[in-house]
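The aim of this short unit is practical: by the end, you should be able to scan a pair of folded records and say something sensible about each. We start with the first protein, listed as its amino acid sequence and then its structure tokens.
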Amino acid sequence: MNNNNTEAEFYYNQGLLESALGNKQDAIADFDRAIALNPNYAEAYYNRGIVKSGLGNKQSAIADYDRAIALNPNYDKAYFNRGVIKSDLGNKQEALLDYDRAIALNPTDSKAYNNRGTVNSDLGNRQEAIADYNRAISLNPTDSKSYYNRGVVQSDLGNKQEAIADYDRAISLNPNYIEAYNNRGGVKSDIGDSQGAIADFERSISLDSTPAKIHLSRGLYKYKTGDMQGAIADYNLAININPNYIEAYNNRGIAKSDLGDSQGAIADYDRSIALDPNLAITYVSRGIDKYKLGDKQGAIADYSLAIDINPHDAKVYTNRGAIKLELGDEQGANADFDRAIIVNPNHARAYYGRTRTKNFFKEREQIISDLIKAAELSYQQGQLDFYQQVIGELELYDISM
């Protein structure tokens, strides 16, 4: 047995070396041998999971992290890495649980707080997200990503000056942070600082490395400043340089949609899907434009395809449920709203949508409960127009908040 363990350790170390050299398949083969010799080798499962994840084998990587955790329930890094993959796959609630466990085991891991903050933000838990970013920054004050991420949430909450301060700090720590310049430019544009916005967008463009990326970034800048035609012109140039530039097709589609050209937008989404049929967001965007054109069944079909790819996006269930409700399918709509709430218990519009499927006389208390929940969540998440809409409906029930 000791000989087996010694040999297993040899292959394990070989695997680490092959991985460091970029020989991923050889590394997996070495970890396989180590595990065959010692089936209880938690570190071998963990590191094999890292390599598999890097190769895009996400589910297989999760299986390795599962096994590492089963062998060592206090393996904080395994929880962290599993949380990363689950978040990437859209399974935010399970990712949140993994980050919770990683933090409980290692409360000084700034990256775990940062990542949990991002998941909380994705789930609409913006105050919790800011608390996580605050903790990450207190543990690692030189992490530009935590400042950047906190800036995103501050902007979403309408705290524009706080967002700019966070982007300032992120850029001071990483002067080549393209996304931070882009986002700071967007916030400056929102508060009327056009010159500051232009300077940030131009700096972002200057940092992009390829002509196609430069046009894409310039298109994003023009889009954010309301110049839709100018944005489309830059996306056209990006596509002329790189005819397979998926992001340019998607962004051009969004700009066309905003201009009312849903047919043109759908054509761009079609091209994007032909290049990569596994991007859920493209089906969602195409579904929105099909709905605008009155093709409700087509929109439902696209939302269903998006859900097949990523079954963890509450907004897509809610959108599909709303259309089903319009078509008179109350049972199907209610199922979608229920599912949205399971995926994200803080999705205000799902609670509101569910009230549309209830019988006024038989389910009055449930309607009121869902409206109150929708009001509370929309207020917490800064959706003030929607909050006022829900409050108006609650007043019909003689409920005040």
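Turning to the second protein, read its sequence before its tokens, just as you did above.
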Amino acid sequence: MSNAVEQALQTAILREIAAYELYASTAKRVEPGPSQDMLLDLAAQERGHRRRLENLLSRGAFARLTDAQEEQVIDLKITDYLVAAPLSPDASLQDILIVAGQREGNSHALYGALAQVAGDEQTRGLFEFLANEELKHKQLVEKLYDELFYAEN
């Protein structure tokens, strides 16, 4: 594995850790119910992505994907055009969801780029899977944003 790919994997791992922390901390701030459940699920998925990336980095291997994991997702683009405020400890749920949606979009782009330069089929498959997973997360965040904030307007 090249040094550039290793650095990209380490960056990706840090992004997964940051995403996990964002979702887990936000889940503590919302009322119990579907929104909290979704945020906790996203946090768990980010933890799983981190494990996959760490396995690839340490052993050059990852678990095989199922057909369900390869499902294609449509980008709703809701958060693409919203202005993200810097997150602070007292950030609103609306601001957190905007940042989360944009971060998921950036992660999707990163994994898509890594898939294009991957040295073998298995590694490319992992990055394509992760890109698709990040797009799923973006879609979930944007649907929640739409439900909570567009419905009010």
